[in-house]
Amino acid sequence: MVEALKNINLEINIGSYCSIVGKSGSGKSSLLKIIGLLDFDYEGTYVLFDNQLRSNKDTVVSKHRRKIGFVFQDFQLINRYTVQKNLETASVIKLGYVDKERISEVLEEVEMSSKAESYPDELSGGQKQRISIARAMLAKPDLLIADEPTGAIDEENTENILELIDKLHKNTNTTIIIVTHDMDVAQRADRIIELRDGVISNDRVLL
Ligand SMILES: Nc1ncnc2c1ncn2[C@@H]1O[C@H](COP(=O)(O)OP(=O)(O)OP(=O)(O)O)[C@@H](O)[C@H]1O
Ligand SMILES: [Mg+2]
């Protein structure tokens, strides 16, 4: 068994914007998976929005997971579906039905309305990431979790994606947790947590 994280004692305020940095293998994704209710194989307790979740039933966990939006380095779009169908599928999972109005709203917010009928393969990396941000925003999450969201895109698109995340944070007070190895990306947050070998080695608030 790998001990990816050790003695993590972390409290993240609702409405804050945190970045998690650290070398490859330092435990960033492992921590994010626990925070995002994707991994329950850990010792200790995790409280999300006042709920201690691991001991709860799957239905409770899925209810909470619906309040979390995920963004990944590799976008994780379904390539055989159009953008619209990708969002419709996410809408069914998150909301239980296809909310066409909300889908067109989020597409507009990420300035991708004209690409609704395109397939992911017809989009640039930056555009794919905008779609995955639209997907994450769909159910108006309380928490947005992003693992290296700009890791696979160029500088110009990185700025664009970071602006979308800033906007989401400012306009809706969504809590943001972003994993990155890029200090320029990390600086956008109001707090930077640094991991080293599974331990928090630095934790600072930015003014
Ligand atoms: N599924 C797994 N099975 C076994 N060990 C794992 C697994 N996932 C991660 N690890 C180990 O846990 C440690 C932390 O990995 P993690 O993926 O959290 O690092 P990371 O900081 O996200 O790295 P990167 O920047 O490369 O994405 C590493 O030692 C890794 O080898
Ligand atoms: Mg990782």
Q: Would you mind describing this structure in some detail?
A:
With 207 residues, the chain is an alpha/beta fold. It has a single domain, classed as Rossmann fold, CATH 3.40.50. Helices cover 36% and strands 18% of the residues. The chain has seven helices and eight strands; from the N terminus they run βαββαβαααβαβαββ. Helix 4 (100-109) crosses helix 5 (125-137). 37% of the residues are buried. The site of adenosine-5'-triphosphate (ATP) has 11 residues, from helix 1.
Task: List the defining traits of the structure above.
207 residues, alpha/beta, Rossmann fold, six-stranded mixed sheet, two-stranded antiparallel ribbon, 7 helices, 8 strands, globular, binds adenosine-5'-triphosphate, binds magnesium ion
